[in-house]
Amino acid sequence: MMDFEAQRIRRTRVVWVVVLSVLVPVAAFVVGVNWVQCLLLGTATATVGGLLALLPAGEDVPWEPPDDQIADGARREVTRLSWTLGGHENRVGEAPLRRLRELAVTRLAARGVQVDDPAGRETAARLLGDQVWAVLTAETGPPPRFDTFVRCVDALERLDTLPSGDHPDHAHRPRPYDNPTVPGAPSW
Questions:
Q1: N or C: which terminal CB in the chain sees fewer CB atoms within 10 Å?
Q2: Distance CA 156, CA 104 (A)
Q3: Could you give the angle at which helices 94-110 and 77-85 cross, rounded to 10 degrees?
Q4: What's the confidence (pLDDT) of residue 33?
């Protein structure tokens, strides 16, 4: 059994359907629409209005937000970071590139290389490779592509495994997505 408010809302809807089902075809006939088309307009108005009148009245169905419980150990930083990596034309966004540059300074400082010093910049370019160093120090131009960004991350990861005299360009290990046949791919 419906409560009083729901009955009132349903009665109001039915009255509006009846009124509009009469007024719409009459107004169309006055404007000059054929009487057969006016009957079709009245029938369509009654059908749509009748269906709308059948909707539950007075029930407010709230949009419940999804359960925002994060499982133990789950974090959103990785998801946010992954979304910033895939930019326009497969180029990395500014935030991950800025973070990579900060990480490079930290990793190089751990090896005793100060990038503020000209000799330190030369050592950093030798340790990371000229192309990786060029990406990390570029102030203008388009952001690097994702595969170039990955190579920069690889070079920084290899810093921890290199003895003090090794040059990383000779230690480049191929990655599964490296494809030298792709046009425009870097050839390093």
A1: N
A2: 7
A3: 110
A4: 93
Q: How many CB atoms lie within 10 A of CB 133?
A: 20
Let me know: does 85 contact 149? Beta carbons within 8 Å. Answer: yes
pLDDT below 50 — which residues of the chain? 1, 166-188
Q: Locate tokens 């009132």: which residue?
A: 8
Task: Tell me the whole-structure pTM to 2 decimals.
Answer: 0.46
Predicted local distance difference test score (pLDDT) of residue 22? 94
Q: Which amino acid is at 110?
A: A
Burial (CB count within 10 angstroms: exposed 0-12, middle 13-18, buried 19+), residue 6: middle
Residue 39: how many other CB atoms lie within 10 Å: 13
Give dist(CA 180, CA 188) in Å, integer: 9
What DSSP designation does 136 have?
Answer: H
Tell me the residue length of the chain.
188
Q: Which residues contact 26 (CB under 8 A, 6 or more apart)?
A: 38
Q: Token digits for 54?
A: 């059948």
Cα separation values, 84 from 91, 105, 143, Å: 10, 21, 12
